[in-house]
Structure formats: C-alpha cells, structure tokens
Amino acid sequence: MLELAERAVRAALACGAEYADARIVRSAAEELCLRNGALVEGSAPFEFGLGIRVLVQGTFGFAAAPGTHRELADLIPGVARRATRAARDLAATRRRKIELAPLTPSVGEHRTPVAEDPFGVPLEEKLELLRAADAGLAAKVAGEPTGAELVVREARMSFRRAEHWLATSEGTRVHQVLVRSGGGIAATASAGGVVERRSYPNSFGGDYHTGGFEVVRALDLAREAPRVRAEALALSVAPPCPAGRRTLILGPAQLMLQIHESVGHPTELDRALGEEIDLAGASFATVDGLGRMRFGSPLVNLYGDSTEPGGLDTRGFDDEGVPSVAFDIVRDGVFVGYHTSREWAAQVQETASTGTLRAEGWWAPPIVRMTNLSLRPGHGTLAELLASTEDGAIYADTVKMWSIDQRRLNFQFTCEVGYEVVGGKLGRLFRSPTYQGTTPEFWGGCDAIAGPSEWRLHGVPNCGKGNPMQIAEMSHGAAPARFRGVEFVAL
Amino acid sequence: MSLLQDDHAFELLEALIAESPADETEATLECIEERFVRFAPSGPTQSADRERYELALRVRFEVPGGGFREARATVGTLDRDEARAALQRAVTLARLAAPSPDAVPLGGPVEIQATAPQRPTQDHTFREKNQWIARALERSEAEGLLGAGLAATHVGNRTLVNSAGRRVHAARSRASFSMSANDVHGAAGRGGAGSAEQIEANVDRLDVDALVERAVSTALRSRDPAPFAPRELTVVLEPRAVAALLLFAGFGAQDYAEGSSFLCGRVGERIFPDDLRLTEEPGTAHSPGWVFDGEGSPVQRVELLRAGAFTGPLTDGRWAKQLGLPNTGHALPQPSADGPAARNMVLSTGHAPLEELIAGVEDGLLVSQLHYVNVSEPRDLVLTGMTRNGTFRIQGGHIVGPVRNLRFTASWIDALTRVTGVGSKLERAGALFEGECSAPALRIDGFRFTSSSSF
User: Fold this and answer.
1) Which end of chain B is more exposed for a tag (fewer CB within 10 A), N or C?
2) How much is the pTM?
C-alpha cells in the first residue's frame, strides 16, 4: 500500500506539485449501544480511501476519493490532477507562499500495543457484558428516593482500527495501525420535572483509550452500574448547586474538559495566528506572550504528548510524518509552547513542528489539532486535598455542559455532580454545579494539585474543529486540583 | 462524477437486498460531491475537492411475540465485495442483538418525487470561489481588517430501498459563503468584528458582495467596544443569533416521552405571542434539506408553534406508534440511540424591519450573532453562550455604540414568551455545531446576561 501512496505522490509531482503527500486510510469500527435493554446501535462502519495534498505556487490543494485496494490505482491520476488544479486555481489570492518547517524524512511503523484484539472478541461476549451492565442499572434496591424513577439506561462500547499509509515527496514513508477501544454506562433519572444524568467513567458515551478489549474489561461496567443508578436517582432529588463565589475542587473527569477547552484549543498555533477566526475563533494566547504570559499559578504545568500510553492521540507520526514528541505548553504557570504543524511552525520561525497535524480521515485536509494534553500531578491524595479545604467548598466532577468564548477566555461549564465539602470530607450532593470564569484567572487560582496516585487519563472522542468541521480524538490526564475564588452560577 | 443516478442506485441496492437472509432489509446509499475553500488573512488555507459514499445496510429478524433484532453496517465504497461483507456484518450483529420490542415493521411504498442536484451548484469551480475570496480579502484589507471564511458547494443524493417495497431517491444541493472581518489582531488593534453568511440550494443566489459589505461594515461599526455590565434587558437578536438558539429546540418525541423535553407540560399551553409561528419544512428547490427521512418516510410539513402554543413532538415510525401520533418523517438512520429531531425549522417572519425593532427599545442591546451555545438545563431549555461579531447598545430607540461581548444564561422558552417584535426578513443560518434553520430577527424583553468579556 505504501507503494500506491508513493505512486500518488509521483502523480501529483507530475501534475506540477512542488510538494505532495498522499495518505491512504482503511478503517473499521464497531459501535454497540443498549438503551433500556434493546440494541439501538449495532453498527460496523468501514472506510477506505485516498487523500492527496499538494503545494503548488506556495498554495495547498487537496483532493480525495474512496476506493478499495483494487480501485485505488485507477483513482490516483484523477485525484492528483484535482488536488493540483485546486491549488493552482487558488494561488492567485495567497498573500504569502506556504513554507514548511524542516523535517528529516520519517521512515517507520507504529502499532498501538493491543493485548486483546477487540475485533477478535466474539460479539456474544461483548453483548453479554453490556447486558450485565444494563441489568445493574435496572435493578431496584431498597431505599431509593421516593418519587424518583430511572427513565433511561444506556450501556455502550466502541472499537476502531485505522491503518494509515503516508508517503511524501520528501521521502517520508510511514505505516501506522492505530486501535482504540472504550465504553461506558449512563443512567437518566427523573423526579418532579427534574431530569438528571449520571455517567461512568465519563460522559461522551464513556471513556476511550488506545488499546484493545482490555480497555473495556478494565472499566468493569457491571460493577459500577448500581452506583451509577443510585447517583442518578439521588441527583434527581438533589438541590441545585447554590450560586456564589467559593473554592472549587475539580475531579479528573471534569478537569479533562477544563484543560481541553481553556488550554488545548487556545494553544493551537493556527488559532493563535487568527487563521481559524471565522468559525471557532482566535486565542488569547498570542505569539507575543510566548515565554512571558502568566497562564496559571506556579503549580500549573501542562504538557502535550503524542506518546502518552493509552492516549487517544498516541501514535508514531502525525499526518505529515512528524514523529511524536512530548512538549511543554505551560511551565511553572508560564505559557511556553504551541501545538503546531510544519506550515505554522515555519510561520513563527520555529525550527520544527510539534507534530500535531491531523485529519479526520482520508477525505479531509489535515489541520492542527491538540494532542494528548495533561496537567502534571502535584502531591498527596484527594482525601488529603479535601481535608485541607474549608467548609462550603464544592467538589465537582464529570462533564455535563460546556461553553467558551471565541478567544477562549470566558467559559461556563456544568458538571454532573457536586458535593459540598464539610469537615474535610464530601458532604451534601448538589445537582448541576455550574461555574464560570476567565481562563488565566481561573488557572491562576490553582493552589493545590493531588499527586500521581490520583492522576487519571480521560479520552475526548468528539473534539470538533475546522470548517467544515472535522472530529478528532485526544486524551487529557489530571489529578484532582483546587481552585480558589470561583464564581458559581444559578441556572 | 460520483453521484449515482437513481436507476443505478436502485439496481445496486435491490441486488443487495435480494442477497439478504434477514426477515427485513433496508439499504441506503448516499453519494456526495463537495468542493470547499477556507480562507484567512493569509489567503486560501485549506481546500478540498472530494467525493464520498455511504452505503448502509440495516437488517432485521423478527422476534416471536413482537419486535425485531436489528443492526446496521456501513461501508464507504461501492465495491460489491465490500458491500456484501457489510451485509454479513449487519446480519451477524442482528442475529445476536437484544430484541427491540417497540420496533415497527419497515414502511411500504410511498410517493416521493425524485429530485436532481442543482447544476450551477454542482459545477461551481475553485476559480469562481477564488474570485469571491479575492473580493472578501481586498475589501477587508482596505479597512485594516482580517477577513476569513468559507466558500463551499456540496451536492448529494440519497437512495433508500427496503424489502417492504419502499424505493425513494432525492438530491440535496447546498452552496454557502460565510466570512468574518476582525480587528482583533489588526494593526490598529481596536477590537470589533462582523460576519455574514448565506446558504442557498442554488449557488447563483448567493450575493457575495453584499455579504462582504455586511461583514466589513459591522466590523467597522463595532470598533472600540465599551465595557457593559451584564444584566437583564431587552435585546434585538438578529436572525443568525435567533437561529443559534432555535437549533437547540429539537422537538423530538423520544425526549418528550422520556420527560427531558421542554415540550413536557407545555403542549397546547398558550404562553407565546400569537405572531410567533414555527414550522418544520421538507427541503425545497430553494432550501437545502431532505424530502425523506432515515427510514424513507416523507418529511412532513409540521406546525410546531401555532396560535401561541406548541403543538407536539416530531416523530419517526417507532415513536409515532408508541405515542399514537402521525409519523412526521423525522427519523435518523436506524437503529439509533437518538430519537427523531427537527432538521429544517422555519420561524415565520413578521412585519418589522430591523430598524423598527431597534426603534422600539428604550434601553437594550442589538446582538448580531451568538457563539458556542449549549444546553444548561433541558426542561426549560436554559441555554448559555457568548455574543459575537457585533454587539451594540441601544438607547432611546437608536444604536449608540458597540459594547464588549457578553455571556447569556437564559431559558429560551421563557424568552419566547416575552417576544415583542418579529423581523420581516428571513435568513438561513447554522451554528458552531451541526444543523441550520431559518429565522427572522426577534425583539425580546428581559433577556438575561450573566457575565462579560474583555473584548
């Protein structure tokens, strides 16, 4: 298949491209979802196609077509011609020619470590696992809140295997096999017009990691189902989280979103340079602040890492062949790094890309996407963190709702659960804790982060960016962290 | 040319159904051709000339006593062997699936007029798009603004055949030009932004010069925005802002039946002004949209809000039967964890030009667009989001100047009860996430802003 990709590159060069890369992607997936016991999603998508990206007169062009192994050879000339024609037709309005940061051609292979092939596990076994989880959600127990009822039960799992072949006109030849697996459960309860949902291990349909079926086994959905049911019912009769300014401790299943929205997107260099401004917006983390701007308290250290074990964006190379690396984004509270590609790294005179150019599939031109981005752990346990926190603080976790402005400053997020901290422990349960803030001030209020034993990596399977929008996946790791002076909003 | 003609598509799908061992089989093929160019201050940044196929096979085995075991497999090529493999995957999944006792048999023949893509949209070239982009960039640069946007044309067709005798085929065409003009990063650095967007089925109906002028003039008027303390006050929401809120009202029967919809307890209750009329419409020659749903049922025109009251939910085959309602033709491709939902809402126009809506405001805001709207609470449809691309103070019936962006947190249902004016011009718009609808401007009393931005 790499030979076909190389043939596509040669075809593009023959059409006049100054640079060309060709990606062939074959992907298979399996999506299973039980809703109230019935299989409402049982699907097995399969994709196979070719995308060619070229530079002509310093302008990118891209064309793509679907095809099987048999068909690809016949498709190559037409796709190459269309890509170069697009670039040539658009070159007249380029204000500056696109240049690419240097790259020593990559030649290599990467395969996600998989202990148990998810596509080799019998369907019966997968469905039985989901049925057991559903049964746990359905089972009533004594002492459930009066007037509360469970109205929706969901148990799902999902697997994807994507095989990529990439060749470039500079000599890069890369083959990757990326496998990700995951699943989750959720219960929705209703009481007196209040409807609340509780998820495990996270919302977004569960949690996902690179790896095989061992990822799903480790979730032990059936074990957690009774707790999820109980918490959903309790939420439906819980009081709303009161408004006002107080201390907030966030758990890892909410910190993932806080990191994603307020750190990940604003540190994508194309955004910071105003090139994403029409739809998703720009960034407060502009280039003149690099190395100087205070992003958070000195405790805050955030790093990108496309080699993070289990991360959804863990791979060997990005979609232009740049090898995966780890790099700092916020060091000791200071903004020090961007997610970049070869084009954008060159634009700011960086010597190399941080390797975060990715496309949703063979059909999409690659764009800068945040990679796995995590908060370095601090010290101690969650129990110790709670014990050192004053009464009236709120511990909140699990993403429910999110909204952030077009420069990634003003955000408002709602969590699934909130607990009042009383006597250094979790006390009364609140529903829909909603907090609002401004990014640097919020991270500046971070005065404690729990240690490595509390650090958890959560996957984001639905990150949207681009126009037309492309979906990408990545992970964020964090241990519970405490933030002072946070504003809670009444809904 | 990647769009299969209806006869070829029917032939392909019927051959697959003939090979299916299932009690019921449905085959759907969607073909797409798309050309888009994204542009930014540096010029065209991304483009694509691409085609895609999605062939979906849904198979069902009857369960004694009622219901079906069912599953679906899709494949992104037209290769016959791959299609057969997809059919086999669906069959394997369905045989093992937990039964869906509420599933109803596949629908039989329906009358749907086949439609074809709009040729001007299908044939629109990169060179023509680049002429638009040149005008957008030159006009922005002349004013010291950063121009950015998207020029896109998309044509597709969808064919559905099932073993109960349903055979439907239709096309969809969509052309759009959107741009924003920004002073955020400009040399002057005075803040201010404007945007404009037009979506049509026929590319020839796009008025790019007017869009560019609108985005640029709004940006110029919104330079040097003043701080503004968030509070409750009267707003005039321009059509794109209304659309961004309206898109969260799905009107789906599943949410309604499960108690999480804003419709719960409100159907038939006369709480809205009589001049608010909301309909769900099938696609037309002038409006991108499908004429049949994920089950091949005709998309019905449905009055969702009439005479001051919601009329009820939108349905698919399953939820129509369960709730004893007509099937309105709003199914997603089945099986699906999500229920039916509105896809093409139209909020009817009133009689007031935008200037008249503004003239009726003693103290309030004009909001051009909203950003990153999301649902905080579904039963009252409490939404939050930011203003964007032009927010203006209104005093004594006149715009007195731009203000910095604000966050709102407000119940959209409550807000609709306080509408005091409906604009006379309809615009079709999307939002940050998927979906688009058509709406006029609205004037609303007591709209709640909860925080502000520094820009």
Assistant:
1) N
2) 0.96
